[in-house]
Target: Adenylate cyclase type 5
Amino acid sequence: MAVLCNRAAFHQDHMGLACYALIAVVLVVQVVGLLLPQPRSASEGIWWTVFFIYTIYTLLPVRMRAAVLSGVLLSALHLAIALHTNAQDQFLLKQHQGQKHQGSSAALVLHEDREKHVKLGSI
Model:
């Protein structure tokens, strides 16, 4: 990219196109990077997403609207792919429901512990 940008024939107008092309490449890398890893995990690639959003906001000379839209798109892609690839994971839904009803994952563990003891008749 640096070699391409330092040529005499490279105009300033082309820099905008190069930046938007780089955002498109980042989107593709994000999707591929989230679909490939095995074993799968709901938190896989979160640091990529954060790093890419930070890089787009701070280092690319694009309009703020484009930076915000690409950040929202990267976040939405990460969320959608993580939910889709981990749809069979029964503990993901349990964690969500437990945090919603109990307020934290520690309360979920205590709640599940109580349920086991109640079923066994120890409480």
Summary: The longest helix spans residues 12-35. DSSP finds six helices and no strands in the chain. Helices lie at 2-5, 12-35, 46-59, 64-85, 90-102, 105-120. The chain has two domains: 15-88, 89-123.
